[in-house]
Structure formats: C-alpha cells, structure tokens
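Input.
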Amino acid sequence: MEILKDRRRTYGEHLTSINIFKKFILPEIKEEIYKYRWVDLFCGEGNLILPILELVPEKQRVDFFKKHIFLFDIQKELVEKSILNAIKYGIPREIAEKNIVQRDTLKNYPTFIFDDDLPVYHITNPPYLYIGYIVKHDETRKHLEYFRGPNEGYQDLYQLALMNDLRHNVKKMIYIIPSNFLFGFSVSNKIRDDFLQYYSIRKAFIFEKKIFEFTGTNVIICFFERKKNPKKEKMIFEGEKINKGIQKRIYVLDPKNHFRAGSEFEEFVKQFKASKPLKVSYYLTMEEIEKNKGDNEITVIDANAFNGKEYERRIFKVNDELYRKIKSNILFVRTVDTGSLSGRAGLYLIKEVFGVDGILVSKSKYRTHPIHVFLTPLLSEDDQILLKNYFNLVLEYFREKTDSEFMTTYKYSNSEYTRKYLGLSQVKELIETFPILSLEKNERDEFERLIYEGGIEEVIDFIKSFNRSKELSLW
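Output.
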C-alpha cells in the first residue's frame, strides 16, 4: 500500500474504474467503435479503452485490437496490468504487447498512432500534479522539465496532456480531469485561453461526489471536439452535474472571463463595486492583543481551540483602542458550509452565535475557521446588520443561480446539499458592493426596505443601478 501511495504522489496517478467508463463514456461512443483508433496515452490498467472489446464479437476481437486499440503508460507495472486485462478479452500476449507500450508520452508523443486512414480518438484520465506540489517534493521535482519551453506557464500535468493533443491536431478527445479546468481561476486561465480557442466542449459530466478511491479531487468528464477554425468565442454546452442525483445545466463560457464556468458572481462584484467601498480586514490575533494590553475586559473564543463541540472561551484585558475596535465590529464570516441550511457560508453576528465579543486566532490562521471581520470606517450596529442581511441575500441568490459553482467544493458528505467553501477574497469583493457610504437617507431607507421586504431581484437591480450611476457621476 505504501508503494502504491508513493506512485500516486510521484506520478499523479488515479486509476479509473470500468464502471465509470461504462456508465458515462461508452454510451457516447458505442455506435462509432469501428470509425476510430482508440488511444489512451496514460492508460493505467486500460479501463478506459479495453472494455470496448466487449462490443466486438469474440472471433473479430484480435483483428479489431490490432487496428483500433493503442495504449501507453510510463509505468512498467501498469503496462503489464493492461496487457493482462487485454488477455482476459481474448487478445494473445504477443499481440497485446505490440499495442500496449511503456512510454513517457508527455515527453515523447507517439506520432505513429496517426499512420493510418482511421482518425485518432483519445480517451484518457491523465496525471494530475499541480506545479506548486511538484516544486515542493523531492520525488516529483523531476517533472519540472515538462514545464519548460512551450509548456512554460501551465500549472498541472493534465494541462500539458491537453496541449500535446492540441499540437498534434487530435480531433476528438474525452478527458477525465480536475474540475478546476472549468471553475478554477489563475490555476486554469491560461490553459482555457489557449485550449478552448481550438476546441469546443460537446458535453460534460461534473462530479460533486467521490469517484476515485484515494483522492477527493473534484473531476469532470469533458468531451472535446476540435473546431474547424480556431476562434475565441462564447461557448455553450450542456453539462450533467452528479451528486446525490443528476442535474442538467446549460453552461456559457465567455472568453472575456477566460472561459470560466459559473462566473456570474465575479462579474457582479467586479462590475458593481461601490464608488466608496468599505475596507475589509480579517482576524484578531494574539500578537495584536499582546501589543494592546489595558484595563478593558473582553471575552473571545479561540478559533484554534475546538474540543469537538465548542470553542474555548478566553478573557483578556485590552486598551481603549483595541476594545473599541473589537466591540464595534460585530460580524464574523463563516467560510465553510456546515451541512445544515442554517449553517451555510455567510456573515453572522458574533454575539448571537458564540455569545462573546470577538474571535481570536491564537496560533495559525486558517481560512476554514470562523473569522472576525473588521470594517473601515466603523459602521453602526444597524448598518452592520443591514450588511449581514444584504451579503447573505446576494450570496444565496448567486448560489441558486449558479448552483454554487463560483465556490469551492469543500467536502463530500451526506448533508442535504454539497458543502462549499467561500474564499476570503470573494467575501471582501461582495462587501465592497455594499453602497452604505454613498447612500443618502432616503436612499438608505429604500435600500433597507428592499432587503427586508422586497425580492432579491429588486435588491440586485438597486445595486446595479445605484453603483453604476454613482460611478458615471464621477466622470
């Protein structure tokens, strides 16, 4: 088991089960099996190609295999497993060994697969290894050579596999890859910009449940088809999201947003930032308390001291300045869904949830802890409660609209919805759309009325209209 674990870390290998292939891929290709050469450049045990043989009459399998199936893997042990699996389908070893080959296809692409009148159809689950991980570990640092020359700037081995196929003009591919290909920010902007001007996505299966035994990496199955002419244009495709059930959604990828899916939230916060945005900072630290000792007593919970049921309470005495800062900022952000509908990510009142004045970080800062939010300038208690209600209302609106796709899947669980993580930069950007510093009294009254009595669409329209008009007036 330890050897297998080391291989997964070294090669980014996560083997695909035959069930995944038969359920999600085979139905899409079963009518075309005689039209293509079926290739997997990262074949593992051969589970993404060899089951095609079940559709071929036994007497024809050897001839079909010779002409239609080509498998490669960098690991000798996996090549041998693929050969043994081919033998189970009735392929003699000497024939299997000719078409199942040990090869580092990232470094040495097997161009001979194109030496036939049949086009290549590449179905693969390529290695996933993020360059940030590769740099930090001795056993993976050798992979840095892959990222040189034309591959400089890409962020993961799977991205290099995609670009290899692009450079060799493969017309059709099915890739099982991390879902950050569709939903990631900086980690995926370059690969999407470069790759999706050449390829369209015909359809996709998006998994929000675990499909690999040894990793919780969120994955998608993407069906790629090469465009006749490269073009950066909007792309529309149907995706099936799979968690507790199957939900069909239409995705629109816009080159203006680096073809990123679920970008409506980012478009809103960037386009409708308030003309006078609040400044946001996070965390009450032990260092700050030590530097500001005084005579004013405050009670806090220690975010680094959780006993499984509750956080440890601590009492400190601080000076007037820090006392005012803590007592005047009454909100905290929950960045991670708890799994219950009442515990979703959002802004909450510290006193209401924890019964204390503040939330202390006594050791390391963790983004998944409850985090004290500090606003500049200081807002009245009523205005902070208005901010809380506005923030949670808009957040839930975009969660509903995008099925929470602008957030990161946090953990697979049996909760009634897929738990998500809200980034601190996203918290800050949404708070910055709150226009409280620019509102006249009558505007504030109307804004408050809409939040408490109106519909979310009216609140969104108010923000769009008000923040845009204030921006225009500055010119």
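The chain has two domains: 2-261, 279-473.
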